[in-house]
Amino acid sequence: MAVVIDGKSLAKELEEDIRPKLLELGKEIRICEFSTIESADSASYGKARRNLAKRLGVEIDTVTVREGSAQGEVEKELARVCNSGYDSVFVNMPVAKGLDASKLQSMIPPHKDMDGISPLNLGNLMLKDDSIYPATARSIAYIIGKQKLEVGSEICIINRSVIIGRPLAIALLNKDYSITICHSKTINLKDKAKRARVVVTATGRAGFLTEEYVSRDSIVIDASVNSLDGKLVGDSSPSLPEFVERITPVPGGVGPVTNVMAFYNVYSGIRKSGA
User: Fold this and answer.
1) Which residue range is the domain that position 92 belongs to?
2) Closest C-alpha to 133, from 270, 15, 264
3) Within this chain, do residues 101 and 176 fall inside the same structural domain, yes or no?
4) Are residues 56 and 148 in the same domain?
5) Of 1-15, 30-44, 149-163, minimum mean pLDDT range
6) The model scores a pTM over 0.85
7) What mean pLDDT comes out for the span 202-224?
8) How many Å apart are CA 187 and CA 166, to the nearest integer?
9) 200 pLDDT higher than 70
10) Helix 135-145 and helix 254-273: axis angle, to 10°?
11) pLDDT attached to residue 275
12) Overall domain count for the chain
């Protein structure tokens, strides 16, 4: 039976590390949650951050645009928010239907980029500056780092998005791991995953990752959150822990670490701005 990698415990350690760093900045830190829709999904996206922010002594305000606003109106309001006194800004997901989420996220100044997805921050990651980059990718890289792997170990990432797969691959490459990025059109995906020391999965397909994709020595980092029969589950099949060495649970694995990593982006952004 696999060892369960406790994301909640890792998140608690990180929270204790980032709290004094934020205090040392010597200022009241204000963050804006920019929302274009009011829904249960939207509310849950920011809830964990608000709870964590409260424990860290950070203020999060919410700005919600009028329902049905056009892209131009939303951009104008977001520009106003970004040019205000907030130290950091994040766009609440999902955005309202018909809006370009990528365009909105790219408007956030690099030093105020809590989610770490601005083009400049992604470009800096290519140049080995990992002070600000996507929080989910950052959390996965941290969890992998805690596994004390041999330099050059093979890692298979089943995701190629700009918030997980691509930045994660660069971050891990910068740490001298050997990376394979896979996706829905990858040939011999099972073979590529099975030979890797670590398999990172984020396909959004409940039960996708079965024993056919892993070996007894595999470490599985499950970064998906899917709803199945009213429960939150990852990509891993229910029986997968019987076939691997280590695995992150869903919930309680990558998610809690991701929430804290977003505040490392805030800290790095304030340091970069000199505010």
Assistant:
1) 26-110
2) 264
3) no
4) no
5) 30-44
6) yes
7) 97
8) 19
9) yes
10) 110
11) 62
12) 2
